[in-house]
Design a protein that fits this description.
Elements lengths: L3 E5 L5 H12 L3 E5 L3 H7 L5 E5 L8 H13 L3 E6 L1 H10 L7 E4 L4 H14 L8 E5 L3 H11 L4 E5 L2 H8 L6 E5 L7 H10 L8 E5 L4 H8 L6 E3 L4 H24 L1
Helix pairs in contact: 7-8
Length: 260
């Protein structure tokens, strides 16, 4: 993980500048932006770490908070927030705790913030070597469970609709997509068709997630020629074993092709 921080604040106050100076002194590169969706959207792709310095403005930026929640959950970003108890309470109305990596009440001890960031970077030092998995499902509870299960061994991104999956794939290329077969609006089969029709994503492996294990349902799923299917009622160990087996077989096939 790169030591690059996107600092979100309303202007450059004395405290914001102190935080920037201390982060830079700790070896971090810092880019500051205002708390607007368009600014965050244009800068977010270059950063895994977001530091949000809250203020009175927090009550008037619900759209920004919802957007931050979405990108932290879907794009596996790490959000650290600094604010008063009241500001943090407002934040939590739109940004649940599972989307926040750390909270620091003002007056903040910057050494504690630096320590938290250093721990995060050290923990993810080997992330570049991890395979990436995109999970697509309209059930948020299921998505969070999958993130918890898979995150130890893989870099995990989550999206809760077919069209969000297509949007994500425009800028990212995961090593594997776990795709819910039955979704409203844009179904799993429709998403698979769009993935296969785009030359940029056509070779991305897709495994369907399905809740139906009867013969007719499985035959229907496999007729679309995904790279496999997994039942959604699998245990944690069974699911992790299946994903691990997929990557091991993929690696073996690549080795075999090189030797042929």
């Amino acid at each position: 993980m790169k030591k690059d921080v996107l600092l979100i604040s309303s202007g450059s106050t004395f405290m914001v500048n102190a935080i920037i100076d201390n982060l830079k002194g700790g070896g971090y590169s810092v880019t500051r932006i205002d708390p607007f969706v368009n600014q965050i959207s244009s800068e977010k792709d270059g950063f895994d770490i977001l530091v949000f310095y809250l203020g009175d403005f927090i009550e008037n930026i619900s759209e920004t908070l919802v957007y931050l929640k979405d990108i932290c959950v879907e794009e596996d970003k790490y959000l650290y927030c600094i604010g008063s108890k009241d500001e943090i309470s407002v934040l939590r109305k739109d940004v649940p705790d599972h989307a926040i990596s750390g909270i620091f009440e003002r007056p903040v001890n910057i050494k504690n913030l630096l320590s938290a960031l250093d721990g995060l970077v050290a923990e993810h030092e080997g992330d570049s070597k991890k395979k990436s998995v995109l999970v697509v499902d309209d059930d948020v509870v299921f998505l969070n469970m999958m993130k918890e299960w898979l995150s130890v061994d893989y870099r995990v991104a989550l999206v809760n609709s077919g069209m969000r999956a297509i949007t994500y794939l425009a800028n990212n290329k995961p090593d594997l997509i776990l795709l819910d077969y039955e979704m409203p609006v844009t179904s799993g089969p429709q998403v698979l068709e769009m993935i296969r029709d785009d030359s940029e994503t056509s070779d991305t492996p897709v495994i369907f997630l399905t809740g139906k294990g009867d013969r007719d349902s499985v035959t229907k799923v496999l007729s679309l020629k995904p790279n496999g299917y997994l039942l959604k009622n699998l245990s944690k160990d069974e699911l992790l074993s299946s994903v691990r087996d997929f990557f091991e077989k993929q690696r073996a096939n690549k080795i075999a092709l090189k030797m042929s």
